Amino acid sequence: MIRLRASAKVNLALRVGRRADDGYHSVATVLQTLSLSDILYSRLADSKNQPAKKLLQLRVDGADLPLSNTVTEAVSAMAVEAHDQGVKPRPLIMQLVKRIPLGAGLGGGSSDAVAAMSACARLWQLDGSRLQESGTFQRIAEHIGADVPFFLSGGTALGTGSGARVESLEPLPSTWFLVAAPQLHVSTADAYLAFDRKIGASNVAGPPIVPAYEPVLSGEWMGNDLSAPVARLHPEVDDARLQLEELGGDCAQMTGSGAASFACFDDRRVVTRASRLLRERGLWAGAYVSITRSQHRRSVFGDFPNLTP
């Protein structure tokens, strides 16, 4: 049995441009992984207990996922890679413990996909060097979704294009985040459609890579172009953001396409009390700290040979 953590993310900044021919909008975004995570338990199945020809038996705790999801997509794609390496993929049993809320803009599904890819590589004993050199993980990640490539590295990063082009940045100083969301699901497609209809799309050249993050956390670099469109669709989302401001958080803003928002705090005790208050008000809320690239990669790849730098 192996246990992997799939970290959540927030978008410290999200600029949205025009929709490309492939249906994706061009974006420029600064992403940051947090200590909030889903947990993926994985093991090889006992052939006596696994239905014939069934590659994956997936149990999900804490959320209702469709039969086809990012974990099943990742396992199917990794099975193809296993065959390419001359390895017969053995049936797997996975248990996904969902702690990251669905439809919140926190990247849970994308991060789960990377954890599933890592689990397959380890349990099937695939060649880590080949996975790296061939760009297999990157290719599979891009196929599953625009946010997935970020979770191959995590930490602090700049995402451009559809978000799949990722460049690691200098680590954010350790920062406490209060994350809160109303009890609703925001459709990413609906958020971008509302952006197109109500706001219009401006050209995006992409923000410069800044050497320090004081400008980000001071608000100079912060902002989310989807905030206003989503607020029109779901006023509760902006209400949660305003509550973060009222509790003394810095740089309160929505992450991704919502429904979650976050604010930054210096004091762990203050942010913990604030999260408790928001839960009493009926919001989903929690206090989490930023995690670095190396911390994220250890949690999702562990000591798998040739995959950790």
Describe this structure in words.
The protein is 33% helix and 27% strand. It folds into 2 domains: 2-170, Ribosomal Protein S5, domain 2 (2-Layer Sandwich), CATH 3.30.230; 176-289, 2-Layer Sandwich (Alpha-Beta Plaits), CATH 3.30.70.890. Helix 1 packs parallel to helix 2 (108-123) and helix 5 (188-199) packs across helix 7. The strands form 2 sheets. Strands 1, 2, 3, 4, 5, 6 and 8 form a 7-stranded mixed beta sheet that branches. Strands 9-10-7-11 form a 4-stranded antiparallel beta sheet, covered by helices on one side. The two termini are 24 Å apart. The protein has 309 residues and is an alpha+beta fold. Strand 5 and strand 6 (165-168) form a beta hairpin. It has 10 helices and 11 strands.
Structure class:
alpha+beta
What Rg do the Cα atoms give?
A: 19 Å
- Encode the helix/strand succession as letters: EEEHEHHHEEEHHEHHEEHEH
How would you describe the shape? Answer: globular
CATH topology of the largest domain: Ribosomal Protein S5, domain 2
**Helix content range:** 25-40%
Q: Would you count the extended β strands for me?
A: 11
The unreliable regions are: 201-214
Q: How many domains, as an integer? A: 2
Beta content comes to 25-35%
Architecture of the largest domain, according to CATH? 2-Layer Sandwich
Q: End-to-end distance, in Å?
A: 24 Å
How many helices? The count is 10
Averaging pLDDT over every residue, what do you get? Answer: 90
Instruction: Outline the biggest β-sheet.
Output: 7 strands, mixed
CATH class bucket of the largest domain: Alpha Beta
